[in-house]
Amino acid sequence: MTNGRWQGLARWRALLQLMWRAAGGRLVLFGVLILVAGLMPTAVILMTGALVRAIPAAVEHGLSAPQGHAAVLALTGLVGGLVAASLANSALAYLTRVIDTATAVEVHRLVGDVTLGTPGLAALEDPAFADELQAVIDAERRATLRWSAAALSGVATTRLRGAGAFVVLLSFSWWAPFLLAAAWHLTNVVFVKASQRGVSVQMNDGATRMRRAEYMRSLALEPAAAKEIRVFGLSGWVVGRYGQAWLDALSVLWDNRRANRSLTAAAIVALVVSHGAVLAAMGSAAASGALSAATLLVLVQAVLATSDLGLIGDWQWSLMQSLAVVQRVTGLKVPGAALPAAAPPRALLAPPQGGKLSVRLDGVRFTYPSRDRATLDGLTLEIPAGQSVAIVGENGAGKSTLIKLLCGLYEPDAGRITVGGSATPLEARGRIGVIFQDFVRYPLPLRDNVGFGHLPLIGDAAALDASLRDAGAGRILSRLPNGWDTVLSREFEGGADLSGGQWQRVALARALFAVRGGAGLLILDEPTAALDVRAETELFERFLELTRDVTTILVSHRLSSVRRADRIVVVEGGRIVEDGTHDQLMRAGGRYAEMFSLQAERFALAQAVAEPAAQEVCDA
Amino acid sequence: MREQLRTVRMLVATAWRTDPLRSAGLLLEPIGYLRFPLFAWFLKLLIEGAMRHDARLLGISVAGIVGTRVFGFMGSWVGASIRIRLTEAVGFALDREITRLVSGLPGLEHHERPDYQDRLELLRQQQGVLGGSLNTLIVTANTVVAGVGTLAALALVSPWLLLVVPFALPALPIAATQQRWQKEVEDRVAEPSRRSRHLRALTVDRNAGMEMRVFGLQHEILARFARSLQDTRAVVLAAARRAVLLDGAGDLLYLAGFAGAVAYMLWRASRGLATAGDVVMVVYLGQQVMSSVVEPVRRVAGLGEVLRAGARLTWLQDYARTLGRMRNGSRPAPARLEEGIVFDHVSFRYPGTEQWALKDVSFRIPAGSVIALVGENGAGKTTLVKLLARMYAPTEGRILVDGVDLAEIEIEGWRARLSAAFQDFARMELTAQHTVGVGDLPRVDDAGATRAALERAGAAGVLAALPAGAGTQLGARWEGGVDLSTGQWQKLALGRALMRTDPLLVFFDEPTASLDALAEHALFERYAREARSGAGRGAVTVLVSHRFSTVRVADLILVIDGGGVRELGAHDDLLQREGLYAELYLMQARSYA
Asked: Taking CA A441 as the corner, what is the angle to CA A437 and CA A447, rounded to the nearest 5 degrees?
C-alpha cells in the first residue's frame, strides 16, 4: 500500500472518530440505515425482474390463479422494497442533520479548547502553530465539516447501489461488470484529479487570499469601521479591494480546477465502448433466446446502476473537503493545552494578611517572539502586600507587557515572578482582578459583564450592586430597560448600547467584583481613559477605600490620578528607572517630575483666573 | 407573487450580467432532462424486442440506451462544472452588491436595530444560498421538464396511468408547509445564531482570551457558546424531524398509488390488453415520477429559501434607495464657510429608542473657530458629532451651514470636506500606509502625504518602529503582520484624521485617551497651529475631550448636560460664570495642584 493510501485511510479514521465523538452510538444506526438505503435499490431491480418473469404465467392463467400469485408476490416485494428504501432515506435524512449539527458543535468545542485551553498566549502565537490554528479556524468558520455526514451518506448509498449492480452483472458474465466499472472509474479519476488540486489550493494559498477578501468584506459590513467608511467616503474603495482580493483568491482556484481535457475525452469514449459492448452482448443473447426478457430487464437496469460507481459530484466534493481538513481539526494540539478544571482551585494560596498578595519581579526579561528587541530587560520590582503602586512610562515602554506577565499570559525569558510569596502568576490567577486597556465588551447581559469578575458569586445581587456602584456605574443600571438582564448590545431585542465611558465603568465594576470575590491583587491598566472628569475624580477620591483590602497595580497616563498611589515607578527601556512617592519623585526632578509638570503646566496658566474666581465664590 | 417575480428577475439578471455565456449554457440543461422519459421508452422497446427475439428492435434500443446514457453523463458533467463556477461568480456578485449597499448606507441605523440586524445577519450567512440561486432555478426547470416528459410518456402507455398524478400531488403542499416551517426556523434562530457568532468571536479573539484566562471564564464562555449552538440546533432538528415525517407520509401515499398503477397494468397484461414491456415501463416511469418529480419538488422547495434570501436583498436595495433619496440633498457643499454652523432647535432620538439623546439644542459655531464639547459620559457629545457627520438626521429641528439646511446639501460632497478621529476608531488591518492614507483617498498611496500627516499628529515614531516602515502589514493574524498597542493605533487614527488638507469640519473625539503625557503635549502644541491654519477657509474644528488642559485651547466651549446645552462661551468666560464647566475644570486642575 502506498503512502498516499495510508494517509487516505488515516483521514477516514479521523473523520469517523470525529463523528463518533459527536454522535456516539447513533453512528451505528447511521451505518445500518446507509446499508438499507444503499442495498434496497438492487432488491427493487431484482423484484422488477421477478415481476416480468411472472407475467407470462399470469397472462396465461390470470392473476387469481395459483400460477398468477407469483406476479402478485413480486409486485408486493417490489413495493415493499420501495417503502423500505423510502423509510430508510427519510430516517437517514434526519439522522444526517443530527450528526452534522453535533459535529459542528464538536468542531467548535475542539477549537475553543485550544484557543482558550493554553495557560498563556505564547503557545498560540508560535508561528508554526498559529498557521495551523488559523487554517482550522478558517475551516470552522466556513463550516467545511458541516456536511460531512450528509456527504458520507450520499456517497456511501450511491456506492452501495453501484456495488449491488456489480454483483448482479456478475451473473451475466465475469467481464461485463469489470469493463463498466473501469469506465466509470475513469470518470472518477477525472473528477478527483480536478478537485484535489482545487481542495488543496482552497486549503492553503487560496485560504489566505480568501481570508483577505473576507476581511475587507467585514470591514465594509461590520460596525467597527462604519463611521470612518462614511466620513472618509471609503465604501467604494473597500468594496473594490474586496472584489480584487476575491478575484485573486478565486482565479487561483479556477486555474487549478480545470479538468484534464484528454482524460475527459478518454472517459467518454470508454463509457460509449463499455456500455455498447455489454449491452450489445446482452442484446444478442436476448435475440438468440439465451436470455429471457425478464433477466434482460434486470441486467440492463444493473448496467445503468453501475454509474453509481462513477463520479457523483457535489457529495463527493463535500466529502473530499471534509477529509482534507478533518485531520487538521482533530490533530490540533498545543503542548500543555488543557482547560483548567471547571472550578479552579481558588483557595490555592493561603491568604496572608487578609487576602492581600505581595508581588515580586526579579530580573525579569521578556522579548515578544515577533520582535528582536527585549520589551522588558531585567526588571526588578517588589510590592509588599496591600501596597498600591502606579506604573508610569511612555507608550511602548513595556507597561502593558508587564501586566500580561503578571497575569501569567506570557512566561518571562529570564528572571522570576512570584505572587503571594511563592506562587507563580498562573497559580495565583484565581486571585487576580484585572481591567485591561482593551477590556472586553461582552455582548451579554449586564449581570454577566459584571459577574464574570468572579463567577461563583454571580448570583449575589448585593455584591453585583455594590461593585457597580463602586465603579461609579450605578446610574447606568437605572437607564437600562431590563435592568441587570439587559443585553449590552443593540443587536439584540431589548438590548442597549453603552458609550465608551459607560463600558469602561462596567469593566471596572467587573474587576472590583473580582476583589469582592476574594482577589488579592487588582491590576488596572488605564482604567479611566474614557471616563469624564467627575467620574474619574470621584473614582480616585475613593481609590484608597476601594483598594483597602487588596494590592493594587495601576497604569495610567493621567498623572493626576497616579499621584494618589502609595508608590510610583517609572518604566523606561524595559526596566524601572524611578521609584518613590509622588513627593519624592517631584523633588528628584527626574522623568516623572518632567511628565507631571508638563500636564500640570497646562492648567497652571488658568490658575491665575481660576483662583480669584474661586475666591469670589467664597466671598459671596 | 410580484415580489417573487421581481426577485427571480433580479437573480437571473445578475447571473446574466456576471457570465452571459455560462448562464446561457445552463439554460440548455433542462433539455437534457428529456432523457428520462426517452430512456423509459427505449427500455420498453428492449423488453419487447427480447420477448419477440427481434434483433432490429434490440439494436435500436441498445443504441438508444447507450446514447441517452452518455448524453446524460456529459450533460451532468458539463452542467455541474458550469454550475459550480457560476454559483461562485454569482454568489460573489450578489455579495459585493450587499457589501456595496450596506457600506454605502448614509447612516448607522442598520447597525443598531435588531430587526435590520436579523435580515442583514441572514444575508451575511446566506451567501452560498444566493450564489446557488440560479442553480436552484435551473433545477426547478429541470424538474418541470423531466416531470412533464415522464407524465406524457405515462399517458402514452395508458391515459389511466395519469391517475398516479393525484398521489404525487401532495408533494406540493408538503413542500409548501415545509417551507413555511423552514422560514419560521430561520426567524427563530436568527437571534441565537447571532449570539453564537459573537460568542465564537470571543473564543478566538486575543484580547478576550487574555481577560477570560485571568478571570477563569474559559469554561463559562465555551459552555454558553455550546448552549447557544444547542439552542439553535434543537430548533433546527425539531423542524427537520417534522419535515422528515411529512416526507415519509408523502412517500407512502405515493407508493400506494404506484402499487395501484402497477397492479392495474398487471391486470391489463393478464387480460392481454397490455404487453410485459408496458408493465416494465410503468414500473420504471412510476419510480421515475418519484425520483424525478416528487423528490425534486422538495428540492425545488429550496426555491422558497432562495426567494426569501433574494427578497432580503431587494429589501436592502429598496432601503438603500429610499434612505439615499431621503438623506441626500442636491446642493453642493460650500467651498468655504462664511458664517458658520447653527443648530436650530435640534432634537434627536436614536431609532427604536424612547429617550431623547439631544433635546431642543440651539447654538452657533462661528466659521473658523475651534469648539470643544464638554460633558459627562453619555451627555450627548458624540451624538452631536454624528449629526454633523450626517450619520443620523435630526429627529426635530435643523442644522444650518451658512444658512443652508444641512439636509439639503449633497451628502458625498459634504463628507468629502470632513475629517475625523473617533474615540472608538477603526483598527484597519491594512498596510500602515493604507491605514493612514485612507483619510484622503486620492492620496492613499502617497507616502509623502501620510508621513506629513503622521508628523502633524506627532505619530511619526510609530512608522519608524515598524519592521517594514509604511509598508508593514498591521494585525498579527496576517503573514508578516505586526500587532500595535492601543496608543500606537490611536496615533495612526490621528494621522488619518489629518490626511485631508482642506476640510471644512474636523472632529477630534477623545483623540488622546490612550496617549502618554509627552505625546499628548506634543500633539496639542502642533494641533493649535493646525486648527488656526484652517481658519482661513472658515474651517471649524470640533473637539471632544475630558482633559480640560486640551479643552482650554478652544475658542468656544459647549457644555452639554442631559441632552441639552448648559453653557456656551470661551474658557475665561465660563470660569467666571462658575457653572458646571468651572466646577469640572477646577476639579481637574486641583488634582494637579
From this structure: 120
Chain B CB contacts of A260 under 8 Å are none
**pLDDT level of residue A346 (50, 70, 90 thresholds):** very low
Which one of A438, A477, A536, A543 would you mutate to disrupt binding with B, by most B Cβ within 10 Å of its Cβ?
A438
Alpha helices for B416-512 (secondary structure H): 432-437, 447-456, 460-464, 486-497
A3 min Cα distance to partner chain B (Å): 30
Do A455 and B220 count as a contact with CB atoms less than 8 A apart? yes
Closest partner residue to A600 (CB to CB) among B195, B229, B592 is: B592
State whether B96 and A87 contact (CB < 8 Å): no
Q: Best mutation site among B44, B54, B181, B266 for testing chain A: the one with the most A CBs within 10 Å?
A: B266
CA distance B360 to B401: 18
Q: How far apart are CA B550 and CA B386, in angstroms?
A: 21
Predicted model pTM: 0.82
The percentage of chain A sitting over the pLDDT mark of 90, rounded to a whole number, equals: 39
- pLDDT band (50, 70, 90) for residue A35: very high
Contacts of B375 in chain A (CB under 8 A): 532
| CA R_g for chain B | 34
Taking CB atoms and an 8 Å cutoff, what residues of chain B touch A300?
Answer: 43, 46, 65
What DSSP string runs through B224-288? HHHHHHHHHHHHHHHHHHHHHHHHHHHHHHHHHHHHHHHHHHHHHHHTTSS-HHHHHHHHHHHHH
Nearest to B18 by CA among B125, B138, B122, B131: B131
pLDDT tens per residue, range B350-398:
877 778 889 999 999 999 888 999 888 777 888 898 899 888 889 999 9
Count of all residues that appear for chain B in the document = 593
Q: Measured between alpha carbons, how far is B48 from A368 in angstroms, rounded to an integer?
A: 82
